[in-house]
Amino acid sequence: MNPAQLVRYEVADGVGVVTVENPPVNALAPGMREGVIEAVARANADPDVRALVLIGAGGNFIAGADIRQFGTARAVSTRDSAKVLDASEKPVVAAIDGYALGGGLEHALACHYRIGTARAKLGLPEVTLGIIPGGGGTQRLPRLIGPEAAADLIVSGRHASADEALRLGLLDVLTDASDLRAAAIRYARSVADVRPLPRVSERGDRIAAAAADPAMLESLRKSVARKARHLKAPLEAMACIEAAVQRPFDEGLLLEQRRFAELENADEAKALRYAFFAERQAAKIPGVDKGQTPQPVRSAAVIGAGTMGGGIAIAFADAGIPVKILEVSEEALTRGMQRIRETFEARVKRGSLSPAEMEKRLARIQSVRDYESIADCDAVVEAVFERIDIKQQVFGRLDTVMKPGAVLLTNSSAIDIDVMAAATRRPEDVAGAHFFAPANVMKLCEVVRGSSTSAATLLRAMKMGRDMGKICAIAGSCDGFAANRSRTPMMTETMLMLEEGARPAQIDKVMMAFGYPLGPFAVNDISGLDVSYEGRKRRAAADPGYRKLHVPDRLVEMGRKGQKTGAGWYRYEPGDRAPHPDPVVDEVIAAVASELGIAQRSFDDEEILHRLLFASVNEACKVLEDGKAYRASDIDVMWLHGFGFPRHRGGLMYWADTVGADRIHRQVCEWHEKYGRRWAPSALLGAVAAAGGRLRDATGKEST
Ligand code: 3H9
């Protein structure tokens, strides 16, 4: 958009109306801040103007700085335009519809009044991008709503609803007028003569109590440090909030400016910006027009009331989408519904859901026992036992009963989509919707395309996932699809390193230091060691060259299946989830190593990290080579949201670039010589290394 059109100024009823417009979310592009500054000057110089309104066009206020501009020099900053708004001699009213985020909310905070609609969402999400609010947000927000509420919003980066914003004092007025502009003009006229102007920068009442109570700030700082984990930005934000309480406004602003500048170009911020755009990129299907808008899924069905089916049904109900859960056996259905109820009850017990809301969500889940009852649903997700013959039967039935145009989805984590599509006369409507366990918690939905899946089906499945609050990325159909396929080699190396002398606790410690919330063995104890046991047996039977994982196999055969049996990779005390290293596991490892004639040695932390992640980088490159993912960044999105890969590392492939494709390729080749075919180097990895390129820019082959 032409910068001249980014900010419009007009006078209505003696009020200067400043409208910013930069679709889709009015991010602050170059020229916008200048436009606001100029409009405020015009209004202040015009004797016929008594007050101002700052408003966004197109259903949003301002969603913040343009994230693409970070890391580049900016002539005029939000700090400057906020200062001009704050200093205006005539009152300025921020009129907020939709998003007021980051630099957008900072503009609103610099205004003298804030009026919002019920659709308003307000927040300072900067820490999610590795930075802190840099336009006075850390100084004005605590002065307006108090340091505790400000720290909560700034450190979580969450969006407050209009109701909450009103309660906190972030909004002065919540209007139900259908015309926000007209309501804001009326409001501006009503406050036109108020003097002195209520400047947030001059308020001291909300910080006075904290200023007199250092212990309160100390405990707030500790609680932020606990939540920040590996991130710098929340700690820096907290330091600025403390300055807001303890120092004059201008000093606090200077501190904020310094800390912002330090963070803006740090690795953490670069990785988090990359992750932001990778997520949005993943929503795009190459060659498919952005303008195509799929119909939303308004009603859904889930086949199978097991753990996965139940989790998916809960995810639909959480998103407000009515869902029918189908199980032919009465007993399995009752058990499944009971488990669903228990999941909701646990949330009520934790305080994250009210009993009334639980009942509302439960009412959205209807249990049914025959296929005819689901015929009218817009989408169906099959989540039955992972057996090809059973899946084919289900798809045959779905083909017979489902209304034309319904999307037929499978939650299979490995079976070829084409096999299921072939059981129907509408293979173009069949795709995978691979949710990760627990489906009501994990954010990733891997949408899997078969060879006949239409773009319309993919788009609709993506929209459905997005409406369920999931982050979607598309994979091609192959064993393990893109996410699990790229992760399996890492899991294999985790187990095989044990035979050479590493210990579960050491490996877990390395991965937690890298940024994972839990190490792979602790996670495996939660998901259950038995889950992959059968799959390994199948693979071993089918492939004589398959490298068996003797240690986990033996643990499963000993009944050590993880937390559910009180022991797995670790030992657990009854009623306690804390993992304790167990000498029994060491004995199993030693026995396997001696039987295989493998000498034990020690590992340093870097070797552990590289061995695990390089194995997966190599496989991820093969996934791209085979055309089973569109882009390397899609694989990063899968790792971030399916496997808890630390977000401040960007994703597997982004992280790989920080090491360098060349170094990884050389190491993979060395391990190939040493360990054999499971380390066969990817041609794509070799090509990127030879060209001195970046893995994160790699794309999948066009054909599949
Ligand atoms: C900041 O303000 C720092 C200040 O303190 C600094 C002072 C010095 N920039 O997500 P969607 C694009 S930090 C650039 O699909 P939704 C997005 O890429 C900033 N582009 O829609 C996408 O483009 P495309 C603080 C942006 O409805 C399109 O808009 N602000 C920006 O699901 C639609 O986005 C934030 O962190 C942006 N700021 O969600 C807010 N925002 O179609 C970041 C969006 O080409 N934004 N785009 O792929 C969001 O969280 C979500 O976009 C939002 C809308 C909730 C607003």
What structural keywords apply?
binds (S)-3-Hydroxyhexanoyl-CoA; 2-enoyl-CoA Hydratase, Chain A, domain 1; eight-stranded mixed β-sheet; 11% strand; 704 residues; 3 domains; alpha/beta; Rossmann fold; N-(1-d-carboxylethyl)-l-norvaline Dehydrogenase, domain 2; 19 strands; six-stranded mixed β-sheet; globular
CATH class of the largest domain: Alpha Beta
How many angstroms separate the termini? Answer: 36 Å
Find the count of extended strands (DSSP E, 2+ residues).
19
Q: The biggest beta sheet, please?
A: 8 strands, mixed
- Which stretches are poorly predicted, pLDDT < 50 over at least 5 residues? none
Major beta sheet, strand line-up: 12-11-10-13-14-15-16-17
Number of H- or I-type helical stretches = 30
Superfamily (CATH H level) name of the largest domain: 2-enoyl-CoA Hydratase, Chain A, domain 1
Instruction: List bound small molecules.
Output: (S)-3-Hydroxyhexanoyl-CoA
Q: Tell me the structural class.
A: alpha/beta
Shape: globular
- The number of domains is 3
As a whole number of angstroms, the C-alpha radius of gyration is 28 Å
The amount of helix comes to 40-55%
For the record, the CATH architecture of the largest domain stands as Alpha-Beta Complex
What is the CATH third-level topology name of the largest domain?
2-enoyl-CoA Hydratase, Chain A, domain 1
Fraction of residues in β-strands: 5-15%
Mean pLDDT: 95
